[in-house]
Amino acid sequence: MVNNCANPKCNKPLHYLRDGRVFVFDVASARVGADGKRMRHLEHFWLCGDCAPLMTVERGAENGIVIRAKQVQRPPVRPAALAS
Length: 84
Fold this sequence. Notes:
single chain; mainly beta; two-stranded antiparallel sheet; 5% helix
């Protein structure tokens, strides 16, 4: 169950899902089922309304989850001669 913002520097408590963004990942468990295959489960992560515009939650190496800063989209720089 998700209780706090996934950003460890924030850790804001979750009160309302409408404030922020929820991320869901299908991950392999350490447990093995009767058929010998690793069991899978869903993990939920929440970024609060302050962190969601700046960060994202992604699948990392070896089924791990990583919280990353979003790439900022900057408008292309126009040469001064073309700006007029």
